[in-house]
Request: fold
Amino acid sequence: MKNQELAKIFYEISDYLKMDEVDFKPYAYQRAGAAIEALEEDIDEIYKKGGKATLKNIPGVGKYIAEKIEEYLETGRIKYLADLKKKTPIKLEEISAVEGMGPRKAKTLFKKLNVRNLKDLEKAAKKHKIAPLFGFGEKTEKNILEGITFLKRSKGRFFLGEILPKVKEVREKLENLKEVEKASFAGSVRRMKETIGDADFLVVSKNPKKVMDFFVSLPGVVKVWGKGNTKASVRTKEGFDMDIRVVPQKSYGAALQYFTGSKEHNIAVRRIAMAKGLKLNEYGLFKGKKMIGGKTEEEIYKILGMKWMVPEIRENQGEIEAALKNNLPKTIGYRDIKGDLHCHSDWDGGENSISQLAKTAQEMGYEYIGISDHTKFLRIEYGLNEKQLSQQRKEIDKLNQRQKGFRILQGAETNILNDGSIDIKDEALKKLDYAIAGIHSNLKMDKERMTERIIKAMKNPYIKIFSHPTGRLLKRREEYQIDFDKILRAAKYFGVILEINSSPFRMDLRDQNIRRAKEAGVKMVINTDSHHKNHLNYIELGVAQSRRGWAEKKDIINCFSLEELLKFFRGVDKRNS
Ligand code: DGT
Ligand code: CA
Ligand code: CA
Reply:
């Protein structure tokens, strides 16, 4: 699918245009990019069907942009972007990966200080050349340096959410190869870690050579790092690497266990084998020279006195002790989610209407969807005021009259203001099915004030959910300064549910915080924070995160049926507390 690549090019064009402070054009490209990214059909196929004319059926694509798409599909590039890059020769993508650095700031730093890339930016900040510039200041300079440090730490790692669709395609292709008996993910992809260093595949085949040839010539492979008889390693055009191993059936379990990792988990498991006088490696489990296990993972764990455990928890964080005591968590399943409670509709600038979102949710087998648009403090996101919320209520009520066995709930993602108050009046909150509160401004408050601010919001009787509770952005932004234990105590006391946000760039709460919440008896909800109906699929990432945090069905409120959920919401009554 070329959709993703083309969308990325359009986003890039949009960013370069933003540097020139053009008014309308950047947003036109951004919109077209989003529409193309969300297409279910391959853009190439659409074009083949009816040329430029059919392209114009895509929302946000007019004559001019259709021409650009055509140029890309015909030549593999868009000259306009090359021209823009020539005009302002900076590595914008690199620079704007730093939290707080947008296209306009990048342009200013280029003009005033000739900052062209990340290195230049770091140098300029360290020499304190940025602070004196108009519109920057000490604080911005400090934030830039912090952003760069954070970025460096996660360098070379990729978002699971970006990698997963691509490696699923590869796995499918491998599975369809007639020489292949079995193909599985291994490594961090199988463990569903939030970021991935490289993607690992494990294959069972009697004809490894065929598999090797096939693997290194997959479309999108730009470099072959190595190709042996049973293993190979390649670089993809997206910039991440993929490793493959081919093993015989009898070693499949041992190899899968070994290559799934984590390394720390493996070391601890091997130690247990050694203590029993056994030897464990990627070929099997051995007593002296005799292989006593290796065909399946279950077999290996069983011989070592453990129950099989889901890959997501194999980090040597207590799972081995739990497995030995037959005390593993009953992690939730990928199909246990009954609804999504954090979705943005076109009322606040999201891509889809409420009924479109509801339809997709129904197709996913959900029992309910919660529409939770931004509220008025977020003007740039078209936040809804009290009056609009009440109009929306009417529309939702009307839509619900036509639904059978499915319910649209009305929520709202309100803003926690600096003093902890909510930007929507209680009388309006009261009429919602539930209200979410989140922090969308002043993220850098000191710890004590930030904690107080959040706790005050939790006291509001209508706030049921605290969205993206630690505010981190993967590879981009650290968590807020908060006293998480205090937040947990308050959440427990006031019955506030903490969100596990499935957005590939957030995944907030992180695994350890999920475990802490679970231990504190605080309920959680897995939400996608969708701004487009296709984002509803991100739920898989959130479920993975919850499994990595040992969460069970009873901990996650959207594993509840509609009836149970509503009962639960009614039961949380803070007015007397
Ligand atoms: P990544 O790629 O950084 O996201 O993380 P992984 O876990 O996928 O690591 P990777 O690709 O280097 O190796 C895949 C698995 O192979 C790893 O999870 C465990 C196993 N493995 C690799 N190196 C070692 C090692 O030195 N000792 C042991 N016991 N296992 C290893
Ligand atoms: Ca890996
Ligand atoms: Ca690897």
About this structure: The chain has four domains: 3-154, 157-247, 252-328, 339-572.
